[in-house]
Task: structure prediction
Amino acid sequence: MSSLIEFRGVTKSFRSGDAAVAAVADIDLTIERGEIFGIIGYSGAGKSTLLRLINALEHATSGSVIVDGRDLTTLRERELRSVRAGIGMIFQQFNLFRSRTVFANIAYPLKVAGWPKDKRTARVTELLAFVGLTEKAWAYPDQLSGGQKQRVGIARALATNPAILLADEATSALDPETTADVLALLKRVNAELGVTIVVITHEMEVVRSIADRVAVLDAGRIIELGTVFDVFSEPQTPTSQRFVGTVLRNQPGEADLERLRGKHSGRIVSARIHDDGRLGAVLSDAVGRHGVRFEIVYGGISALQGRSFGSLTLELLGEPEAVDALIAELRTVTEVEEVAA
Ligand SMILES: Nc1ncnc2c1ncn2[C@@H]1O[C@H](COP(=O)(O)OP(=O)(O)OP(=O)(O)O)[C@@H](O)[C@H]1O
Result:
């Protein structure tokens, strides 16, 4: 892979009264050609600003934004327009023209780019088939469901064959089932058309479903960056742990722990499950040897990017020394955390 989008020491500040407030600060980030890159963060974290710096709807206060080898901070408006032509964008509220048909909405960017009518018609027909809306060509946006509107948005964004697609909370207005359909379409856009996609979202499920890598943004800074597998299986910061906790139930939360403490008198430990299967092997062998009984009281295994990870929470019952010896043995193969005595 080669880098397609690069942020080098980028800060974007806005004036707020007399002060300058940084919406994003000191961003160093490289997005590779062909990947689906997720940016997650709470409201106000700076996600939209970061996205809008890629198509120069915002201009960096300092640092450089490099897209396909061109440093946007050195370009004139006319050159920026040609960069923007290679970047499509979709939005939470779809931003379709209500007074135009689906066909005309998709044809619009082609018209602006000066495509002749026969070529426009051929391209729109092709795009309608790709997003599965051939029958809706002459419908108006108000006659479509949310998912169909976003399909039109995607077709319109792809009309001029951009290398990059920016998705700004593109599924946040949709129900879970429609979200899954739209995300599947975005995956096809990436896999079949080779379009690099940057997705900003506050929903970890979106990141889990489609992204290859993810950056966690907090107060304008990237606090974590990695493959979706790494960030989900070992989130390093409390913010990332909270996001991961919204979609994975491997580890008991505070309320679960309280319930477990009330119900179980033995020592309770959580042990990480890795792809290697060693926890299961050691557990089945060692409990008998140490004379410890156990009960599984909480846990879950998730699969992501073709690998498994998870956690098992066990109540251990036996002589204190025997339980200590078992925990020590488990610790030789995985991470074990005592969560309640
Ligand atoms: N044009 C602007 N003028 C002044 N402040 C702005 C402007 N755009 C963004 N900000 C501020 O920058 C910060 C980051 O905003 P941004 O919209 O990028 O965050 P976000 O993570 O996309 O949030 P949301 O999901 O709510 O849109 C916020 O504090 C916001 O108020």
